Amino acid sequence: MTFSAKTDIGQKRKINQDSFNCKAIGNSAAWMVVCDGMGGMAAGNVASDIAVKCLTRCFEENLPKKASPELIRSLLKSSILSANAAVFAKANENEELNGMGTTVVAAIIASGVCYVAHAGDSRLYRMHKGVLSQVTTDHSIVQTMVDSGQLTEEQAKIHPNKNIITRALGVHEDIEIDYTEFNIFEGDIIFLCTDGLTNCVDDEKIAQVLLKEEFSDTAQKCVELANENGGNDNITFVAVKI
After folding, report:
1. Cα torsion for 217, 218, 223, 224, to the nearest 10°?
2. Residue environment code for 39-48, b if the CB has 16+ CB neighbours within 10 A, otherwise e
3. Containing domain of residue 195, as a range?
4. Could you give the CA distance from residue 206 to residue 125 in angstroms, rounded to a whole number?
5. DSSP-derived pairing of the beta strands 189-193 and 178-183
6. Residues of the chain with pLDDT under 50
7. Which CATH number does the domain housing residue 81 bear?
8. CB-based contacts of 18: which residues, under 8 Å, 6+ apart?
9. Which helix (H) or strand (E) holds 111?
10. CA-to-CA distance for 173 and 88, rounded, in angstroms?
11. What's the total number of domains in the chain?
């Protein structure tokens, strides 16, 4: 497995509030995490940093090279709950950080399965046999309106409230996490990203990058495309090729 990853401040922000990490475990397993902070210039940066560091520590200390599906599922959920508690506690220690939070999308790949947990609107995608599909569903006001039939997908892309999320790590003492898992195969590409990418580059163009570019160049190319199309937010792209 090989990685292609990059984060960028974009064209409009004064600070990068995205954070990420990824690591291979032996030759057949890996983990990845992406967070997009919110809650003020400094607070969002703090929230995403705390969350990624907490998840990194949990994975490195508790994920062996060979882990059972039950252990992986439990670890994903417990790690995100720990990160939520860490961000929430920090926010309540410092009045300037009160109300901060972060999206989170985390994946563990092991024994031909990708295990995914997320909250917020940072996404996980899969490319299989040349077809790109979005695996996660955004936790956002606009997605709720799409699901209820109030908006079409095209209307959602330009809706003024498209960046308002309905779940975030660290905002409340408890957090609801969506979880899924799916089989993966040699040649598949799994990537995590923040909305700074998907708000500026549509899925079709991302798919073209994955199909045409050298895999090692895909993160750089996706970030460049987002910046060329406005770079309205921080941009993070983390991919692994099976």
Report:
1. 60
2. bbeebbbbbb
3. 2-241
4. 10
5. unpaired
6. none
7. 3.60.40.10
8. 7, 34, 35, 36, 37, 48, 194, 196, 234, 235, 236
9. none
10. 6
11. 1
